[in-house]
Amino acid sequence: MRNPSTTMTLLQLFSPSGAVAQAPALRLAARRLRSLGFDVQLDADALARSQRFAGDDERRLAALHRVAAAAPSIAMPTRGGYGLTRLLDRIDWPLLAQSVERGTRWVGHSDFTALHLSLLTHTGAASWAGPMAVDDFGRADTADGSGGVDEVTRDCFVEAMGGELEAVGFRTEAGFDGLGVRGRLWGGNLAMVMSVLGTPHWPAARLIKGGVLFLEEVNEHPYRVERSLLQLQQAGVLQAQQAVVLGAVSGFKPSPLDRGFTLKTVVARVRAGMKTPLLTGLPFGHVQPKVTLPVGRKVQLLVQGRDVLIGWDR
């Protein structure tokens, strides 16, 4: 694995959403990112706390604008949780657009989906769905190897930030052999996608019609996932896509009332209501390994047998 560059790439860690519960995990993440060749800096309010948030709304908004004004090479949240929705109406989108023009790559997932989609909506700028500091680089090492940093997550992120990554691959279910589509890649956490539907922060049809929508979810029972997917279907969003790609749906607890109702049931039900291909198996979400994906970029999705490749121009 190569470092992102021969010179140190500035990576700014900041907290726009939930509070960091354990400072040592963030410090561990910073050390690990430095070991990968990044010049890691912590925002002054990265460890701030107010209720469940990383500081009150004003403080988190100021941190976001501070990072945008500094225009680091990479802007990465410490963690997700909840909080960005409170800020969307007051974010200085031209300032964020300027940061992208100056070379900033905004990277994250979960609650950060709100920023990805709103940035695309208000500026047309692309960003990166990928790892975050605490969840992906701050996990303690364990004897059984289940902790620490996942190598695929790490290497995919480093290659993406170094401009070397041009495709990701995964395995899906049978039945899509020969599928080939091209469109704008967009999406992220399902709950956050739903949170901007019908708001001024929802991407215009010209941006996402004929696109490739990717989705993931955590701590939501499959029936809630189905409900959200059906809302997107009933709103005409899913049918307007070239393809829908489902990542990890994790962290939920089965209910005695399910009686055979599973995520497979959900996928079958949604597929039955539309012609748009719905693929599963994307290694993305609140899981490891996790790939890094360009939100807002045109991609090509190809399926050969059960092997899927999503590629883009570097």
- CATH domain fold name of the largest domain: Rossmann fold
- Along the chain, the helix and strand elements come as EHEHEHEHEHHEEHHEHEHEEEE
Overall number of domains:
2
Give the full name of the CATH homologous superfamily of the largest domain.
Answer: Murein tetrapeptidase LD-carboxypeptidase, N-terminal domain
Distance between the termini: 18 Å
Write a short abstract of this structure.
The protein is of the alpha/beta class and 314 residues long. 31% of the residues lie in helices and 22% in strands. The two termini are 18 Å apart.
What does this structure look like?
This protein is of the alpha/beta class and about 325 residues long. It has two domains: about 10-160, Murein tetrapeptidase LD-carboxypeptidase, N-terminal domain (Rossmann fold), CATH 3.40.50; about 165-310, Glucose Oxidase, domain 1 (3-Layer(bba) Sandwich). It is about 30% helix and about 20% strand. Strand 9, helix 10 (about 265-270) and strand 10 form a beta-alpha-beta unit. Helix 4 packs across helix 7 (about 190-195). The protein is globular and about 50 Å long. It starts with 8 loop residues before the first strand and ends with a strand. The model has no long low-confidence stretch (mean pLDDT about 95).
Short descriptors:
Glucose Oxidase, domain 1; alpha/beta; 13 strands; 7-stranded mixed β-sheet; Rossmann fold; 6-stranded mixed β-sheet; globular; 314 residues; 2 domains
